Amino acid sequence: MALSYLRSSSSRSANLLRPLSSAASLRRPISTDTTPITIETSVPFTSHQCEAPSRSVETNPSELLTFFRDMALMRRMEIAADSLYKAKLIRGFCHLYDGQEAVAVGMEAAITKKDCIITAYRDHCTFVGRGGTLLEVFAELMGRQAGCSKGKGGSMHFYKKDSNFYGGHGIVGAQVPLGCGLAFAQKYSKDESVTFALYGDGAANQGQLFEALNISALWDLPAILVCENNHYGMGTAEWRAAKSPAYYKRGDYVPGLKVDGMDALAVKQACKFAKEHALKNGPIILEMDTYRYHGHSMSDPGSTYRTRDEISGVRQERDPIERVRKLILSHDLATEKELKDIEKEVRKEVDDAIAQAKESPMPEPSELFSNVYAKGLGAESFGADRKELRATLA
Amino acid sequence: MAAIFQGVGAAATLSSSPSNSFVPKKFLTSPRRSFSVRKVPSYVVVRSDGSVNFDLNSKSRRAQQLVANAVATKADSSAASSSSNPGHELLLFEALREGLEEEMERDPRVCVMGEDVGHYGGSYKVTKDLAKKFGDLRVLDTPIAENSFTGMGIGAAMTGLRPVVEGMNMGFLLLAFNQISNNCGMLHYTSGGQFTIPIVIRGPGGVGRQLGAEHSQRLESYFQSIPGIQMVACSTPYNAKGLMKAAIRSENPVILFEHVLLYNLKERIPDEDYICNLEEAEMVRPGEHVTILTYSRMRYHVMQAAKTLVNKGYDPEVIDIRSLKPFDLYTIGNSVKKTHRVLIVEECMRTGGIGASLTAAITENFNDYLDAPIMCLSSQDVPTPYAGTLEEWTVVQPAQIVTAVEQLCR
């Protein structure tokens, strides 16, 4: 039964469960209430060759608070990565996802870890959504041993096999055929799971996408192609790169759905719908209308091809975290202070992870030659100092 | 046709080759370095096939004079072109842009295609402001579709246009490999000579600063077997501009390899129009003991090693081969005949790299002149790791070059 808990200023509604210990006031209250709430998405879905799902999304307070926490964590993580890059602890390419968190979070809410996700290089938050830890993220970004790819992959190559996260790819569009391959394997082994292959509006013009889509449709694969349309392919706006920026329609014979990608609930609804569809009818395209606040990468200021007004406009009106915050507050699921506490906690978590990641050592020299081949094939590797040092991988 | 140039203050004469002559008579020694120290005039004969005959007496003198300037420094403004023509200083990416701009002005058929080359100005600023100057039809922003726009560039070239296709990173051109191999390289042959493909495919490649495995590729090793194409690698602002212009004027398809880490090199280059021979190697530092063949970024690692080697008493001859396909076996051969020892330093991977082909070519042609087996230092046969320390061990470092020369000259 739900317990009511009287706080200092306001009384809580009866359907919030609170921990009973006396230290509760110091600890962040965790809402585990799963009483269903129905919320309407602010923007209806637009569909192509299929019937759009309902605008009313079923959720519950626990889920909304999870959304808030996860997105706050992702946002904080990306901002921290920005600072680390400027401090030259992260080098090379670093593509940040802030603004697009709702897609990662909403998708996870609709699926299980048996379903596969594959994405391009803007993968930090998707990785975390799949269960990756902050330590793995920051250590990998800094090239340390504790990273998810042992420091050898970098920002664009995050993977997590045990939760079916297939990366993490640098070449634009190349992950989509891979994703359709994952779907093929799923169909082959008949395990009732689906694959979400994410790509951007820039990648939507790659030929390999249409090849993979054709084959997936032909073979009825449970592949869901998700276009994260943030309207810019590096410095080129979508209308300058695509004759038809209605990416959800570009599948032609493949049905499509256009979704407000800044609304985590809409994303959840769409992904749930897509999963059901893909298991029965083959591929479907989802277009997530989203936005990135940062430039394409840390070496792109992001302001030469769009105005600062546009960026701040989207931040004010459509920010995914603010939207969920307003929902939570308006439904009285938590106080503002509690939400701020969550954000503070999240910040601390991120700082701790960074400190821990900094402690992690750089990879050993021998790591240069490990994992080139799978062990057991007698392949040879030459030593780093070129002095006849050979390691036979026995 | 032979031309005779007087040595003193010849930098100005060197660069003012007639602008419509396709193969300029460029000296093998870089004008800024050699002739600023020269006190005694000597006569040099440069032939149309690119061969150079030096006055024998001056050769050893020049080698001695040049030891002091063993290192290719980034800003060599003190040894600038002679007083009659001071030239102007710029960075390598600006030199590429200058070359491109001058050719676009000179020939209205030259156009540029690539991702973010127009309004964005190019991801490495090589095409900055060109779209404003020449318009959207001559500086084309393409969607992210390498296979298609490379193919389209080749198709346009078949009719007589002269496109310059930019791969934002050389690695992305792997998506266009079919077009480059089958259409770009082979069409001139399979059509019995009817079509020429005067296209230039360019872009930055090589191992950068922790860019990750997919963005640190060296495509010269993959493209080198394609018959029908020419490959050149630039390494200084001077040869970047010269090679860019020569590549655009060439009737053959040329792939111009730039390097991500060399874009900010500064150098003073001549004001007047000049081009660099596409098939010629560049003598960076004449020497007697060992021939070091290199190209692109490794040139700088070699020159850094050369500093140490000179202090240890060695006299390496450093040649920047520049032309990766075909090799300038004339310059290389002359060098081998002189020093009898060859060290190749490259950034390609050991297996199937440019060094591997070069080793084979030298062994086949100059085996009798070699006193020791050819040594080839290349990058490790691994995907380039992200971690900084691992990435450093992937490529050849100056210390390894010094060790190799010591081993070779034992």
From TrEMBL, chain A:
Which Enzyme Commission number(s) are listed?
1.2.4.1
| Keyword Oxidoreductase assigned | yes
Q: Which residues form the signal peptide?
A: none
Residue stretches of biased makeup (Basic and acidic residues): 306-316
Q: Where is this region: Disordered?
A: 297-316
Q: Give the keywords, sorted.
A: Oxidoreductase, Pyruvate, Thiamine pyrophosphate
Q: Which Gene3D superfamilies match?
A: 3.40.50.970
Q: Where is the Dehydrogenase E1 component domain?
A: 69-365
| Organism superkingdom | Eukaryota
Kindly state the subunit structure of this protein.
Answer: Tetramer of 2 alpha and 2 beta subunits.
What this chain does, per the record?
A: The pyruvate dehydrogenase complex catalyzes the overall conversion of pyruvate to acetyl-CoA and CO(2). It contains multiple copies of three enzymatic components: pyruvate dehydrogenase (E1), dihydrolipoamide acetyltransferase (E2) and lipoamide dehydrogenase (E3).
What is the name listed in the Swiss-Prot or TrEMBL entry for this protein? Pyruvate dehydrogenase E1 component subunit alpha
Automatic annotation (TrEMBL), chain B:
One Pfam match: Transketolase_C
What UniProt keywords apply to this chain's record, in alphabetical order? Oxidoreductase, Pyruvate, Thiamine pyrophosphate
Per its Swiss-Prot or TrEMBL entry, what cofactor is needed?
thiamine diphosphate
Known catalytic reactions: N(6)-[(R)-lipoyl]-L-lysyl-[protein] + pyruvate + H(+) = N(6)-[(R)-S(8)-acetyldihydrolipoyl]-L-lysyl-[protein] + CO2
Q: Does the keyword Oxidoreductase apply?
A: yes
- Per the UniProt entry, the Enzyme Commission number(s) are 1.2.4.1
Transmembrane ranges? none
Domain Transketolase-like pyrimidine-binding, by residue range, is 90-265
Matching InterPro entries, A to Z?
THDP-binding (IPR029061), Transketo_C/PFOR_II (IPR009014), Transketolase-like_Pyr-bd (IPR005475), Transketolase_C (IPR033248)
UniProt xrefs under CDD domains:
TPP_PYR_E1-PDHc-beta_like
User: Main role?
Assistant: The pyruvate dehydrogenase complex catalyzes the overall conversion of pyruvate to acetyl-CoA and CO(2). It contains multiple copies of three enzymatic components: pyruvate dehydrogenase (E1), dihydrolipoamide acetyltransferase (E2) and lipoamide dehydrogenase (E3).
Q: What is this protein called?
A: pyruvate dehydrogenase (acetyl-transferring)
